[in-house]
Amino acid sequence: MKPASRIFFSYHDDALHTVEGLVVQEYPVQLVVNGREIATLIGSPHDLRFLVAGFLRLQNFVQDISDFEMFSVCEDFGSANVRIKGELPERLKPVLTSGCGTGVSFSMPDSVRSSVTGNRDSILPEEIFSLMHHLSSRAEQYRSHGGIHSAAVGRKGELLLYAEDLGRHNTLDRIAGEALFKGMDLADTMLVTSGRVSTEMVAKAALLGVNLIASRTSPTDMAIRLCEESGICLVGYVRGAKFTVYCHPERIEQYPDCPKISGVTAAILAGGASSRMGTNKALLEVDGTPIITRSYQTLARLFHEVIIVTNTPGEYPFLPCRKVPDIYPGFGSIAGLHAALVHSPSDRTFVTACDMPFVDPVIIRYLCELQQDGFDAVVPFSSGGQEPLHAVYSSACREIFETAIQGSQRKILDILAGMKTRLVPWDEIQRVSGAKGAFLNVNTPEEYGAVNGAGQPSCEPGDPQKTS
What is the pLDDT of residues 65-106, one digit of tens each? Predict the structure, then answer.
């Protein structure tokens, strides 16, 4: 089985950058002998028949190839069904399954597959580097004679517990045991380890409530999958001022030195049909960069979290953020607005369309400041009219938009007229920022041709997003 290339994110120079690569495969094989399930073997996916046969030989169940009456290994389902001469012992001893002093075989608890119930606060890269530095400083035995794995848990970059052992899995068992004796709650902690991250490490970390795992080396493919399911941010190759993020990159704070707008989440609406353009507008490039990437990079410098509202998340694997769907698909832009507010963890949400290549951070900050005055919505004007898809909305608008959708009301401007809306006139916007084209949206091939390769346009849009 040849591993497939995957998209990850490399953190360096204060931001996450898209990279593509392979990860080590981890493959579980359920071993059934004479009708009894005796172990789950976890290893690499190649030559599984040798793995199974060797395991049974070293457990002293067989001594010769003739001892096998039936030998079947199904790689598609991860199972081995074997019949041997003679009977198995009535009581079997626990067996080690994946090397490195891992511990007994086990089935993954269902509780591990539920999301980690911690907070969604962003994790500063410096916290990861700091905790890994603490781990290195404490690993004195590793420096003296080698062969010892180490692990530590902490919060906000400060070490809470440290352990070392021959086996990397045992280090986490030691931490869990010490926390039990000391009455310490490890929920929402970060785990750093010197060894490769496997599914067993992830399972144990999830049971403790850990929300980030970081390693000096790489994880396995199954560890990545389990972290995705469990809501754990998984980081590898923490070295110097760099690391690789394998899942949940939205938890990592980018541009940590940029002053962020507190209490506001940003959302990019990418659910339109692009019927007039004939192709996905968000993916069209302006000056060599997709429009949606340009917007995301601007917003990531302004907000702690940026989300993409889309029913086709597979089109945006290169963006290190959450992709969330419409709650009411098929209802156009108002459904996108509603979904942004439902999925936003903040009381206020700045919303913009995916086809606006020149969003202006100065204008965005100004709109967010105005929304603090208790308005349901703050909507600016461009030279062509109201811009409801470049505006700030309070969480109170969730029910307003949902009621409108259920009543088949789609015109956003009509809904805004019945809300406590702060309309920001065009002349006021012009006094805030002199940026040209901040509200330009690209709807047609002609509009795209006018801006592509020409840099920021010198005029305001003639066809603003006035309606939905």
Answer: 999 999 999 887 888 999 999 888 877 765 544 444 343 343
Cβ neighbours of residue 151 closer than 8 Å, sequence gap 6 or more:
135, 162, 163, 164, 168, 171, 172, 175, 191, 192, 193, 194, 195
pTM across the whole model? 0.83
Beta bridge partners of 42: 28
Positions annotated as catalytic residues are: 100
Architecture of domain 27-109: Roll (3.10)
- For 6-20+113-248, the fitting CATH number among 3.40.50.300, 3.30.70.20, 3.40.140.10, 3.10.320.10 is 3.40.140.10
3-state secondary structure 30-97: EEEECCEEEEEEEECCCCHHHHHHHHHHHCCCCCCHHHEEEEEEECCCCEEEEEECCCCCCCCCCCEC
The dotted CATH code for 264-451 is: 3.90.550.10
- Greatest C-alpha distance within the chain: 90
What are the angstrom distances between the C-alpha of 262 and each of 107, 161, 346? 43, 32, 9
* Residue that has been written with the tokens 């990019």 in this structure: 268
| Cα distances (Å, whole numbers) of residue 421 to 148, 220, 265, 418 | 62, 50, 19, 8
